[in-house]
């Protein structure tokens, strides 16, 4: 009996999920190893349908390498069902008690043509009937399309908009809609409408329950207030519901306070902790919440007292030291100005010894340490970490002078002058050992930090350079309470030229979310504003612009280089995806929304493999044109191999701004850190690809500790228009015998970069390029290499101290 495969993708070519069959008893929440969780109604595994042509019987079978997704109503989230990423899958449905409010309408049969555009309301929403009429223009100016829309489902989680005239079905998160508009609909649903003059307590409780489940507690408060006015006898019902709302509000407030605590907004957190007890009646705060509040209060009281004492002791001791030791006074002032509540632990030894010295003086005992020695402990601990703190004034002098040298070096643009700075330092008497210097340069303040920090959004223009001929124009916004004594994650935003109305338009879409999460944000005006039609060019100059910006921000503000994220919309989403895949060692994650994907770059030229350690949170609508095909093809490669990738696909939506997705995206980003490459550098080979990172551009030539001089004939001048038979491949590994093996297809020369922890540098290191006989090298830290690498990349979390260059056979 013969069977043929019915490829349902032929019938639904743009659908990300072609056929999903729900798993009956499990899969309501998917929990990843970093704690990020996705809730839904069911998990589905993609299926193929086989039809027996003789009998016509259909057989549903699990699709080989099929996608797995969880459905929460308005969207599918496709995820890797791999032990590399998943921690747990639980049967815990957070939506099971949600009440759906539905209306019955006839489904339309007419297809809305792809040429339809520019919808205009002919008749606004009828809030009682849940309907409206929209007229679309067409590419043909003589044609108009009249579409009758309706809301068929409204739950505390989502809204479905359908049509009685056309085949239209669009889903929205409820929070994408203004609560005032939602109220107009929901209060007119037949299950909630009251008879005139007859307030109904049960119906009002249902409405309040809707707001509670939707996490719109302010709306619930409005109806609770009206409940007592209309039905004063319902005091018990009111008290019960009010207590529930207060308990949930307490949960939200403490979660926001904890977020502020984690993101460095300590003053905001302390102010809100102080007012917390006054906000809620006794008994309305759940015990677990009360315990979290108490723990934070105790922690802040202790740290604030230590912080104030630390700064006071620095001031007192600075006045007591001999004026001949001016560097101790300068160092004490610098430490006092830079110390932060979150970095106080670096001064632990200093505070212990200074406190003991004050007690000795009060009891007429001679302190064990002089003021000079105490300040030495502060300076060494602050610049080298608490483990390296010591009271030797000579060591403190070396540390302080090394700090001055490093800041001078990083502020010197001319290479020859930088070499002179480092030569003087190494020839002088205050040069630190390499390990101490590496630690110091990772902890000093940004070398180019402004004297006055911006308190609002500022526009910055970086001039063109030889390496970056476009320069950079961007908008910068620092988080509230930014202080260079602690490091902050960085979010680079790439707008869509048309959809976002410039960098300011995209930045405005985020509101205060970045600041609440403690992010430095830079929105890049990456295109020529004088051009009417703009698309991302996939060019080396656009890449150089982003690398110039990243280096500038690392030099100017205290950026945590292990927590740098890219987020783009539309053409900006295409830019974020490309730059992330081209420089995966620079970023902790990327969030492309509606990316217009240039498929050849990712599939034939195999850039999809570069994401094997780079987390991706892709957001789009499943009606988003041909890019959905490319995203699906990448997903079919990413997901079965356990790449750290999520694809969120909104049902019935096209290229739109998905505002409701931002809180989820920040929760996802807050859990991410830049991946360590480990012993194997470059993704493993697959059935279709050779091992290693892929590149087709001269600018995409460094991946972690391996860089290359590529053969120009093996690269593409213009990714969109040039052709190339195969990508350049770069890979390396650290194997037994203190050996590094590296290979390249399409490169002339390879450079191996060395950093702490890679190898045993007390023994000879063997370097083998391709099949050539290994070369034996003695690798020792070279301060000149360290400083120049930091100058070029400003990546203080991943410093390299030596490099070796080799010809590729």
Task: Please give a handful of descriptors for the protein shown.
six-stranded antiparallel β-sheet, disordered N terminus, 809 residues, alpha+beta
What are the SSEs and their pairings?
Elements: E1 4-6, E2 20-22, E3 29-32, E4 37-39, E5 42-51, E6 58-62, E7 68-71, E8 75-79, E9 86-90, E10 101-102, E11 117-126, E12 131-137, E13 144-154, E14 158-163, E15 169-173, H1 179-186, H2 201-213, H3 217-230, H4 235-263, H5 266-279, H6 287-320, H7 326-338, H8 348-362, H9 371-384, H10 393-410, H11 415-427, H12 434-443, E16 458-462, E17 472-477, E18 488-494, H13 502-509, H14 513-516, E19 520-524, H15 540-556, E20 559-569, H16 571-582, E21 589-593, H17 599-602, E22 616-621, H18 627-638, E23 645-650, H19 662-669, E24 680-681, E25 693-695, E26 702-703, E27 706-710, E28 728-735, E29 739-745, E30 747-754, E31 765-769, E32 775-777, H20 783-793, E33 802-807
Parallel strand pairs: 18-19, 18-20, 20-21, 21-22, 22-23, 29-31
Antiparallel strand pairs: 1-5, 2-5, 3-4, 3-9, 5-6, 5-7, 7-8, 8-23, 10-13, 11-12, 12-13, 13-14, 14-15, 16-17, 17-19, 24-28, 25-28, 26-27, 27-30, 28-29, 30-33, 31-32
Helix pairs in contact: 2-3, 2-4, 3-4, 4-5, 4-6, 5-6, 6-7, 6-8, 6-9, 7-9, 8-9, 9-10, 10-11
